[in-house]
Amino acid sequence: MKKKKAIVVGAGINGVVAAIELRKREHEVVLVDPGPLPHPLAASTDISKAVRAAYGADEDYTALAEQSREIWRRWNVEFGVELYHEIGFLFMRQRQMQPGDFEYESFKLLEQRGHQIERISSKQLLERYPAWNAERYPDGFLDLEAGYAESGRVVAALIQRAKSLGVELRENTKFRERRRGENRESWVRTRNVAGFSRARGDEGGGKQNAPIFVRLISGAGGCANRIHAHLLVLRYP
Ligand SMILES: Cc1cc2nc3c(=O)[nH]c(=O)nc-3n(C[C@H](O)[C@H](O)[C@H](O)COP(=O)(O)OP(=O)(O)OC[C@H]3O[C@@H](n4cnc5c(N)ncnc54)[C@H](O)[C@@H]3O)c2cc1C
To answer: What is the pTM assigned to this prediction?
Structure first.
C-alpha cells in the first residue's frame, strides 16, 4: 500500500497505540492533542484500569482481550518495568450465577477457552478474602489471568515510544473540524492552545492523496490496544 500521511486526533491509549501501529507500517504520522500529555483529563490517564477478558458471552471481544493480555505481558518486558499487574479479578454475585448473567456467561466462555479461572463459593470467599462480607456473595469466580494496568504511566511510556519511532507529536493543538473541498481535502484545522496559531493540513492533488484520518477522542475499554491495532490492520495493512 502507498504510504500516506496519517493524522491521529487524541493521544489517549487508543490514539497513541493507533499512531504507533500506523508508524510501524511506515506511514508518516502526526498525533494531535491539546495536552499536556498524558492529558490529566483523558479517560486513559487515571492511576489504574482493570484489564480482563470477561465480557459475558461476547466471544469476539473476549478474543481481542486475550490478544491484548499478551501485549500487556510483552510491554512489561519491553518497558523494563511492570505496569500491568496480573493479580487476578474477582467477580461475585449476591445469588447463584445463572445463564444470562454477565458473570455466568463470562465464566462459561472463559472456561471453554481454557482460561485459568476458579469458581468461588461463600466458604472459599471467607477463607481467601476474609475482608469480604462472604455470606452476601454465594457464588462467583476468580479470573487468575486478569489484573490492572497503571494506565497513566502506560500512556506516558507509549508516548515516549511513539516519539522514538518518529511520530510527530503536535501537543498544544486541538482538532476543530474536518472539511472537504472539491479537488482537495482540508482535513484538519487546529486551534492553538499555546504556540502556533493554526495548523492546517491541506493535501492537494485529489482524493488519492487524502491522508488517513483517525479520530480517537474516546473509545473502547482498556484492552483497546489490540482492538485498534486490529482495526488498523484491516484498513491499512
Ligand atoms: C472512570 C473510568 C474508569 C474506567 N475503568 C476502566 C477499566 O477499569 N478498564 C478498562 O478497560 N476501561 C476502563 N475505562 C474505559 C477506558 O479508560 C477508556 O475506554 C479509554 O481510556 C479510552 O481511551 P481513549 O484513548 O479512547 O480516550 P481518552 O483517554 O479520553 O483520550 C482522548 C484524548 O483526546 C484528546 N482530545 C480531546 N479533544 C480533542 C480535540 N478536540 N483535539 C485533539 N485531541 C483531543 C484528549 O486530550 C485525550 O488525550 C474507564 C473509564 C473511566 C472514565
So the answer is: 0.85
| Residues 6+ positions from 107 with CB-CB distance below 8 Å | 54, 91, 97, 117, 119, 141
Q: What separation in Å is there between the alpha carbon of 30 and the centre of ligand 1?
A: 19
**Cα 13 to Cα 223: distance, rounded to the nearest angstrom:** 10
Domain with CATH 3.50.50.60 in the chain: 5-46+151-216
Nearest CA, atom 27, ligand 1: 218
pLDDT per residue as tens, the chain (237 positions): 667 788 888 999 999 999 999 999 999 999 999 889 999 999 998 899 999 999 999 999 999 999 999 999 999 999 999 999 999 999 999 999 999 999 999 999 999 999 999 999 999 999 999 999 999 999 999 999 999 999 999 999 999 999 999 999 998 888 876 666 655 555 566 665 433 333 444 444 445 555 566 665 554 455 555 555 555 555 554
CA distance 45 to 30: 20
Among protein residues, the one whose CA lies closest to atom 21 of ligand 1 = 44
CATH number given to 5-46+151-216: 3.50.50.60
Name the helix (H) or strand (E) containing 6. Answer: strand 5-9
Nearest atom in ligand 1 to the alpha carbon of residue 176 is: 41
Cα(14) to centroid(ligand 1), Å: 8
User: In degrees rounded to 5, what are phi and psi of residue 54?
Assistant: -80, 110
Atom number of ligand 1 nearest to Cα 223:
11
User: Which residues have CB under 6 Å of ligand 1?
Assistant: 9-15, 32-34, 39, 42-44, 49-50, 174-175, 216-223
